[in-house]
Amino acid sequence: MVRLKYEIEDSTIAELLGVQNFTNEESAILELVKNAYDAGATELLINFNSNGLVISDNGVGMNENDIRSNWMHVGKSNKRYYSDFSFTLPKRILAGSKGVGRFALARLGKKVVLYSKKESQNEVEWTTDWNESLLEKNISQPKINGHGTKIYIHELRDRWTQNRIKNLSRYLSTTYNDNVMNIVIKPEQDDQVKYIFRNPEMGKTHVSEIELSYDNCNYSLNCIIKSDEFKQEAEKYFQNEKWNLQEKRINVYDELVNDNSLDEIPEIEFKQMLEKIGPFKAKLFFSLKVYSNQDRDLFLYKYPTLHERYDYGIVLYRNAFSIASFDGKKDWLELNKRMRKSPAAATHPTGSWRVRSNQLSGAIFIDKQKNPELKDMANRQGLEENEYFKLFSEIILLGITEFERGRQKFIRLVNKKNKNQENQSNQRTPVLNEILQTKCDKLNLNEAKVADLKNEIRALQTITEQASREKDEIESNYRYDVRILNSFVTIGLKAAAIAHEYKNNRNNLTENYKNIVEALKKYGMWGELNNEEHTRFTYQNVPFLLQSAKKINEETCKFMDAMLEDLEKSKFQSQDLNLKEKLNNIRNSWEKNCSNLNFKLNISDDIVYMGSSDVLTTIFDNLILNTWQQNINSENVNITINAIKMNNLIDFTYKDDGIGLTKKYLDNPDKILEVHESSRSNGHGLGMWIVNNTISMTGGKISLIDGKKGFYLQFSLGEGK
What whole-number distance in Å separates Cα of residue 583 and Cα of residue 606? Predict the structure, then answer.
């Protein structure tokens, strides 16, 4: 038997592994930078001149044997974790692993001349035009002193303009984050390429920081949020909290175990994945792109502008270098997609504000050895977007969400304060009132009154501007709410249409079982079908199958009745409603369909709710639905509803003795009010948001949520809205 080896032309290798493998010239140069880094270089020069491109380093260099056995061996790579060069301190985590980075030369130019020398050894020369390669051991005019490598690339495939060289400098500043090797680019610059996030400064490059540290052994994410976005006056809004410094440890398992996007992962494997993904860290920087004068005054923004604002996006680094296609240009965390799902403004009273991709920059750090499941794609142009990558992204988003909550909480308080001040200002126009009540020919305004009048006019102008802004804000919030609710209305109308069709055939649905049984008895088959021989197996047991069909038909009829009842037009008309009677109707409807629910209503007979019936139905149907779904396997669940009327508000408590909230909500139960928050893997996360939104629209509010022992909700409801 003869062993065979594949043979391939040099030009084909160059085309496949060089020209086609590297998407652009910048990524090709980066591969050569990585080669120099792995060679232990402390100095790297990238020099563009009239003859082409010269890349030189003072790394360990190569000798004849290295050229023959490594450089000319496709796929030959040193897959060690650390470098082992004695002169390199400290040790470096090697960047290369595939053994194809050298073919980046083919992407850059058609001809290459390489000189290399190891300490105290002879210099070698390697040349290629990608049709053949030549090695020269006797160099008449040495190019290198000491040790290192110098590469001359001729007949460049790209035209390197000043602007393109400047872009290369920025690209390397983004992709290289170590300081052990100085990189100099000529002729564009004569100093070293500098890491883009080297000198972050509050008020200059950003206004808030998010520091994340994931502990894979404990499945916990430590989140530290620092902010200098708002003026000192902001302290009065957070009297019992440090609004400019927050620290929280998030239990990732509790938060994500039932997450919709990860529900295909079996729970038994989930903790293993959380451990195998490995530890990592991140530091993210937030700032708005534009701060208007009006916004600064309204929301107490501290800085009028950021002169050196970070706008590099979020970069993913594996040790000293960023991962291709994760260099900040791509919204790889899908922040904008996430924002479109929840487009609420930060001032929205119930919606969840989401940060945009152009508002966050920063770095996330993973390790070649500690995070092995985050794998490079075969073409080295990104990461495999496998289950681990998906989980990795979700963990990062947990920290970002924590920042969003804190910032929105503050802005809501500021916005509420502004509206109160605006209402007060509307009454402070004594001079203007005097003028309006006096005939023009009798006006006698001295200088002081003229000055007061001017101030009042200016104040009214401010109020007008604020009113216009509030109008725009209300319209934006309205569009947000309507978009979500319209989808539910559409589903409801479709269900109602189907229910109407079924209702027309109700007699058939309810009478079919009886008719079939009578027919089988008439034909003398019923007794035969009920004997032991024919009922031994469930799938052949005709009486059992008919009984099951009867039960399904009965449940279908109940569903139809419920759907059609909920869509009665009268429910949307404002009227005086006996509260106890209305809630009794809701209770009766649920008891007919859910035998495991037991209700207790503590409501006076004389409480009248002045509003539309749909408000009460929406709130309590969603609350009861949550109780039922959370405790669907429980034999009995007790629900207690209390109500008392105080002035123009009705105070409610709703509680059940079920399993309560899942662990992810126990420390901060208000999270369940956010859009798309759900403790069930198949939950849409809109029920409690709808409850909160409906309560808010009446002028009421939720005052307390507790889920430690069953579920408990305390809220007030306004009338006449």
Answer: 13
Q: In angstroms, what is the C-alpha Rg of the chain?
A: 35
Quick one: 634 exposed, middle or buried, by C-beta within 10 A (0-12, 13-18, 19+)?
middle
Q: Tell me: domain 10-186, CATH 3.40.30.10, correct?
A: no
- Which residues is 83 bridged to in the sheet? none
Query: CA 418 → CA 87, 166, 408, 412, distances in Å?
Result: 64, 47, 15, 10
* Nearest-angstrom CA–CA distance, 389 and 372: 11
pLDDT digits (tens, 9 = 90+) for 24-70: 888 889 989 998 999 999 999 999 988 899 999 999 999 998 888 87
Cβ neighbours of 352 (radius 10 Å): 24
Confirm if 117 and 147 have CB atoms less than 8 A apart: yes
* Per-residue tokens: 569: 């037009």
The answer to whether the bond into 90 is cis (omega within 30° of 0) is yes
CATH code of 571-721, in short, is 3.30.565.10
Element (H, E) at 460: helix 447-504
Tens digit of each residue's pLDDT (9 = 90 or more) over 675-718: 778 777 666 777 888 889 889 888 899 999 999 989 999 999 98
* Beta strands across the sheet bearing 597-602: 597-602, 637-646, 649-656, 711-718, 701-706
Terminal-to-terminal C-alpha distance of the chain:
90
Are the C-beta atoms of residues 172 and 33 closer than 8 Å to each other?
yes
Q: Is 321 within 8 Å of 365 (Cβ atoms)?
A: no
